[in-house]
């Protein structure tokens, strides 16, 4: 199946390390660069590419950062995070997720993305297989490969709500399997695993002697189903799970770069060593603001969640009116992932659309709407639309997409 690893830049000079030459360009970043160039040329674009909240960071969180700056929190911070934040995370995990972690089992990183890379480097030996349910967030395969692991993509089905089933997991396991990546709510499909679904998967995991789980719960606060559950809270799972989370999505703090892992010892100790090797501790005043956010800013996240929910409903309604599109209802996060493959093979003005990359390029060229091709997420049937945009932009964007599709014959 299609995967970012297929676009490797083998034409880069050979004096560069193989691991560097092999890094694939994420589809999201390729599209974002195209959009930036068009915008710089003052072209009117409806941008549905974005993977970050369109809200500003709430003022009281900014204020907490200002106070930390004034208090002199401007120096190197402890490698694994400032004590205040590690404690706030441990308290949050207990309060909201039913998880028992000591503060020293929490390691703060420069965003969840670094936490994910740290986790892969901590657990993977060269050749270890990593189960990646598809569609997946495009950064997982890169993090896995950079650490020497080998992604094994397991395609999920629309009728399973884009969720991995225990049978599909069991069928993908081999003696080399080392890590299973779970992402709930998921990017791009908005899949949310409930407690019973996780328990059924954990049963399979525990039957495999060396399998760990990386559970990325970064979108947990953008859950429309009320079903989100933490993987590590499932009986038996904690000793094999590294939980990934952060403040980027919940609190509209993508630029602050604060994420974290929660994992049992000795994994946490090793994660801190990797953090020390790569970047040292994360920005201290951003960490102080993150601690404040986790303790006190719940109301702001709820307001944003409700806005994403009403946009999800709007987008779903509009897409359902477009002929030949199949769309499943996202239960969380801020994306829609419609299947547009019924249009593949059709053409307009001599331009034939064969796949999701052609389709996303066509949308951008013909009606100035930017989307992300599903191929970058391991599902070429679909394109990803971000709902981190105003209702007016979403209406305009989808009406333009419908017009572009109607022109294809
Ligand atoms: N995990 C998923 C599934 C994401 O979609 C993203 C960002 O797009 C991240 C992690 C990264 O979060 P952070 O900004 O904390 O690095």
Features:
Aspartate Aminotransferase, domain 1, 3-stranded antiparallel beta sheet, Aspartate Aminotransferase, domain 2, 7-stranded mixed beta sheet, 13 helices, binds pyridoxal-5'-phosphate, 409 residues, alpha/beta, 2 domains
Commentary on this structure:
The chain has 409 residues and is an alpha/beta fold. The protein has 2 domains: 155 residues, Aspartate Aminotransferase, domain 1 (Alpha-Beta Complex); 223 residues, Type I PLP-dependent aspartate aminotransferase-like (Major domain) (Aspartate Aminotransferase, domain 2, 3-Layer(aba) Sandwich). Helix content is 39%, strand content 13%. It has 13 helices and 14 strands. The strands form 4 sheets. Strands 2-8-7-6-5-3-4 form a 7-stranded mixed beta sheet, with helices on both faces. It has a 3-stranded antiparallel beta sheet with strand order 9-14-13. Strand 5, helix 8 and strand 6 form a beta-alpha-beta unit. Helix 11 packs parallel to helix 13. The longest helix is centred in the C-terminal third of the chain and has 23 residues. The chain is globular, with a radius of gyration of 21 Å. The chain binds pyridoxal-5'-phosphate. Pyridoxal-5'-phosphate binds next to helix 5.
